[in-house]
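Worked problem 6 (solution included).
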Amino acid sequence: MCEESRDRIALLRRIAEALERFMPPPRATDPAEAPGFFWDGGTDSLLPVEDVRRLPLELLRGIDAHKRTLLANTRRFARRLPANNALLWGARGSGKSALVKATFGAVHAEYPHLRIVEIDRDVIDTLPRLMRLLRAWKDYRFIVFCDDLSFDADDDTYKTLKSALEGGIEGAPENVVFYATSNRRHLMPREMIENERKVAIHPTEAEQEKVSLSDRFGLWLGFYPCDQETYLDIVRAYAAHFGLDVPEDELRARAIEWAATRGGRSGRVAWQFIRDLAGELGKRLD
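Solution. The predicted structure is:
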């Protein structure tokens, strides 16, 4: 990157920071209003979500170690003990976001002061403002959740996320943890890291700058495509839970055929099959 480009980027960053200082303070919302909220980064508002849609934790199969780890971390956090930010990364449809929401539901039932706040990846640059708002509500504990988090080659908002997770001189709020899901282990495309290594004067330092974001997460939980027996176990669990009365041999054959048409097996594919089957049988999935 040439000197002129670096100066231009630095100037734009200073302008953005100055404009942020003149923005009105975030609108306060009573955290007792709902168990979940959606952060509107455009208006700095928390929109209540009275019914956080989730599956029972016991229905998530094939990820028992992940369940234990995230559940223990979340319980410690709810008990006002030290806990880590968590990055759930890996295969599409493998249950990453479902696990976050199911874990929240299980722990919220035990600790009603726990809240979940979803932030969209497109407004991740407003995370510092959200953190400042949540810090003031010390009687509550907040899981800030970002689903499908990743950064493109020309996107430098990852630096904002790094700073927010560290908290600067003020430190990160002790009543907030950040849970994110991503298909990428380091949240950035491999070619982005490799390009930085090629053009940098000190390639190792450039690479470390890119991967250091994922280091802000104390928990890394990797998810992988499930095998056929795990997939069928998920299907059977769903069918039993929702009372879908189908003979075992027929359920197995149809589930395998469904996965073949989808080009793979995953918890998401199993759920889509169950939705189709329930609709055919005239059953609701309540």
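Discussion: Confidence is low (pLDDT under 50) at residues 196-202.
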